[in-house]
Amino acid sequence: MLSIFKKEIRTYFTTVTGFGFLGFMVLITGYFFVSQNIAAANPSYNDSLAGSMIMFLILIPILTMRLFADETRQKTDQLLFSAPIKVTDIVAGKFLAAVALYLIGLAITLVFPVILSRYCEMDWGLTAVGLLGYFLMGACLISVGLFISVLTDNQIVAAAATFAVVFLLLMMDNIASSAPINTVSSLVFAGALIAVIAIVVYNSTKNIAAAGIFALLGFVITGVLYLFKPLIFDGFIIKVLGWFSALNRFENFYMGVVSISDLVYYITFSVAFLYLTTNVIEKRRWS
Amino acid sequence: MIEVKNLTKKFGTHTAVDNISFVVNDGEIVGFLGPNGAGKTTTMNMMTGFISSTEGTVRINGFDILEDPVKAKKQLGYLPDVPPVYGDMTVEEYLRFVCDLKGVKKSDRDFMIKDVTSTTGIKDVYKRLIKNLSKGYRQRVGLAQALIGDPDVLILDEPTSGLDPKQIIEMRELIKKLGKKHTVILSSHILSEVSEVCDKILIINKGKLVAVGGTEELMHKADGNAQLVTVKGDAYRAVEKLREWSAVEDVMIESDNGDGTFDLKVYGKEGADIREIIFASMAEEYMPVLMLKPLSSGLEEVFMNIINGSMDNSEVEKEQLSIAFAQGGAENDGESGSEEAQE
Description:
Distance between the termini of chain B: 30 Å
Strand content of chain B: 25-35%
Largest sheet of chain B: 6 strands, mixed
Shape of chain A: flat
Helix content of chain B: 25-40%
Number of helices of chain A: 14
Low-confidence stretches of chain B: 310-343
Structural class of chain B: alpha/beta
Number of strands of chain A: 0
Number of domains of chain A: 2
Oligomer: heterodimer
Order of helices and strands of chain A: HHHHHHHHHHHHHH
Number of helices of chain B: 13
Structural class of chain A: mainly alpha
């Protein structure tokens, strides 16, 4: 794992990527710092953090587009996957390298709250919690970007797809809030969800019976629930979309609240995508 | 020691490798021979654990590549058909990374890198970026990579592809040298290369193993027992005379040279030495034998025979095929098997 980690870090800094990333991150954070804190005479650095989240749209693709796409294109994946090292170590090494670069950027931007503390009474506890949330959020999105990078051998495609997905994740709250809340649409949505999962099950197992049973079971359970507890379906779409809203979770950190459920959410989210990444690699080898 | 048992790989409905079994003993240099798309690269990818097999097992020094991958891969050095090098690293950085990847001890690294760079002759490009190197040097850097960690088994996928003739000769010498210390499996569609370098040949076609044997053995097998004879005199008389012998299977007039001499092809029964018979019967008729030479089929012909699954093809067809084959080898076009492997 360490070998991959070191290699990725070195590649970040021998190419323009690493410095470009850091420069961009500091620039955008600096802009929000000036507009949210300095110009607005606001002592809460968390406002800068919340505002600058929009830069993930650009930062995450820069960080992750290369990670696997370039290995596949250069065919160096043959070296990695025939080396005496586990696939999970390769995935973890790459993920940690991207996270490490992100942490370096975060460390540099610490200069802003330090500047702020000279002019006002800072709540360092609040800022620390905000930074923790900001870090976890970034790590989550990096895991998504890493997953997308493994799906293609074209960096540009990886970057564009990552941009789109990060956009969706950041916008999820907006989408959810405009979703219909009546029961019929909820039922339709639940049905579609079950169908999609059934297709995924079929795709990964090639077993039509398993997928069929899964779909049937899903529909039956939905139907039973609807008959006996129709209240569950009130605002069902919003609830489901809310699970995917990484931004939603950040609000607690923003307000200085660290809750176990949020920590678990972010960690689970990252681990799930790393697991998916490993799975895609393994599946490609097996198919 | 490598044991491959009932190895099969299917891509969807297409069977790229079909039930291949063989054993490679320690210290052997084995050539994997087959036309483009025969399944050489796919087989090698399975042997190195890059892709998994649909069925069958590969054991490297007793370690199963799928069940015990880390231990099995430790015994392996792999040079794929495209050298897996990073363009934006220098040769030094790259080799240090590979040492790291293969878990070579820190104290051994400097010595190991020195050793492989001098073996592969890349000392003078040591500090250069790999993307600025020529194809030949990249291939050598790829080979250096395979040698790091001093693996028992080297698997080289078309190690000479894309090299110029001088580099090809150097690469062959290098492989021969490596064969003294390592077990080497190399694939190629160039026959002369395999016959020169390898002790044993595996011929693979359409995913099936069609022949296994020593280089000499295979050549002998297809040689048959035929002689090309140039005699002076009456062709029909000569044919008649030769056909009287029970040891002679068949006689054909190959060509009339127009100066009173003509060429005959004489096929003998298996095991019979027909040279004396030819001499004696021609001498009897006072038809001087001007030339007598075995119709030796080179490895090319053996190969074509095996690939075509019969020994009875007409000479013309064989010749055309072997020319086509030789051209295919010279172009070194990318092997379609590797593309299949990417699917």
